Amino acid sequence: MKTIQSLYSKKPSSSRKRWKLKPDRRTIIVLTTLVSAMTLVSGVLLLMEPGPIQPLTIASLQAFETDKAPVNPLATDAPLHPWLGIVIHDSGTIQGTADQIDEAHKQFGLGSLGYHFVIHNGNGAPEGQLVSSSRWKGQTKGAYCGGPDADQFNQNALGVCMIGDFDRSAPTEVQMQALVNLVRALQNQFAIPADRIWVQTGGRTDSSTGKLFPIATFQRQLRQF
After folding, report:
1. Helix (H, G, I), strand (E, B) or coil at 58
2. How far apart (Å, rounded) are the C-alpha atoms in residues 27 and 10?
3. In total, how many domains does the chain have?
4. pLDDT at 199
């Protein structure tokens, strides 16, 4: 069984002209072909263009904490960074919390939780609870990618971790709704196009979102806004 130590993820593979990454020889085909640019890196599925982006209310993004009033997980302590994309992983574990990942990433020498956001699955923290990390609050780069071009992704794309092993079980409906709400809010805030939303999937690695992640449902939910 995977442990929390498996939560440090590798680099998502993609050709990134906008970010001036070295192109890969393989062609990225939206929602059909999985791409791998390095050993033990999962494929990437790019989401097709959703409908027009509509503003979301803060209520739809509230992260509820035990014995505390609802908080706004998009609140920051620093001016907004011009984020260009979103990368979505699963944790590769059946249960866990943002705090546990934070501790594991500190042990890896990352300083703090490498992702900007974590969405819980109910096993360890309330189902669908959205937690923003110090990296989001401080608008600093992530630490969820590894490899030669990792800094391009960490610096320019927001990292979202969903607690769960989606090769073993699908994310919950509540988790998925929280993800959709978050992604749409971030798209609206930063004008992020759909082709800059990556859901890592394919062969099981510590950096992928497993085969049971509902890509088609995710697309449909995004279009409903």
Report:
1. helix
2. 20
3. 1
4. 85
The CA distance from 31 to 3, in Å, is 30
d(CA 52, CA 187): 10
pLDDT at 190: 95
* CATH number of the domain residue 145 falls in: 3.40.80.10
**pLDDT at residue 71, as a whole number:** 67
Residues 6 or more apart whose CB falls under 8 angstroms from that of 170 comprise 212, 213, 214
User: Are the beta carbons of 9 and 146 closer than 8 angstroms?
Assistant: yes
Residue 144: in which H helix or E strand, if any?
A: none
Distance CA 175, CA 7 (A): 18
Domain that includes residue 173, residue range: 4-223
pLDDT at position 188? 92
pLDDT of residue 81: 96
How far is the C-alpha of 60 from the C-alpha of 46, rounded, in Å? Answer: 25
Residue type, 77: D
The residues, any chain, with a CB within 8 Å of residue 69's CB and separated by 6 or more, are none
Pairing of strands 85-90, 130-132: unpaired
Q: Which tokens in the block code for residue 7?
A: 């939560």
Give the mean pLDDT per block of 10 residues along the chain (225 residues): 36 38 26 23 33 36 46 88 94 92 91 95 94 96 82 92 92 94 94 86 50 86 70
